[in-house]
Amino acid sequence: MNEESCERQLEIDSFNKLTKLGNQAVSLGLIAGHGYYQGKYEILEQGKALLMTDQEAQEYLEKLIQEIGS
To answer: Which of the chain's ends, N or C, has fewer CB atoms near its CB within 10 Å?
Structure first.
């Protein structure tokens, strides 16, 4: 696998992980929706839209999900 293929696979893996976390947060009632908007990851929560990088969104969603598990 060349460098470009590895980078593309990492992007796909990141997208899949964000989608899974977002869907889990929706099903738990923590957020209203999620997805990409204007090149950023958007999280819809309690009447507001949060735009962030993929990494920030992943950390945010993981923290939300962990908080209800504690």
So the answer is: C
